[in-house]
Amino acid sequence: MQDPLAFIIAIAHIAAALASLNGILTTLGQGKVASTAIESMARQPEASDSIRSAMFIGLAMGETSGIYGLLIAIIMLFANPLVSIYIQQMAG
Question: Which of 23, 37, 65, 76 is 20 to 30 A off residue 58, Cα-Cα?
Fold first, then answer.
């Protein structure tokens, strides 16, 4: 291995790409939840209030997952703790 710091940064970029993929998949999942809820409300209009409540809770949970993925990607790219640990190990 030539440069361990370059390896750490490369792995961090791969991890950030996977975390960003979470945002794309979250969007697809939220679209599926919304379309299924609308279809269910069309079939049973009397249950639309409970379906709508469950849909909004599911969308909020999915959005939270997407935000966490974005947060992890930002941390891995700009505030990677592994780089500072490596630098401290090399200095002392």
Answer: 76
- Tell which residue, 90, 85, 71, 82, has the closest CA to residue 10: 82
Our measurement of the distance from residue 7's CA atom to the centroid of its chain's CA atoms, rounded to an integer in Å, reads 24
Q: CB–CB of 33/58 below 8 Å?
A: yes
CATH annotation of 4-86 = 1.20.20.10
In tens digits, the chain (92 residues) has pLDDT values of 678 888 989 999 999 999 989 988 999 999 999 999 999 999 999 999 999 999 999 999 999 999 999 999 999 899 888 888 888 888 87
Residue 76's CB is within 10 A of a number of other CB atoms, namely: 22
Whole-angstrom distance, CA of residue 43 vs CA of residue 13 = 46
Contacts of 81 (CB under 8 A, 6+ apart): 75
For residue 29, which amino acid is it? Answer: G
Q: Tell me the backbone φ, ψ of residue 2, rounded to 5 degrees.
A: -75, -60
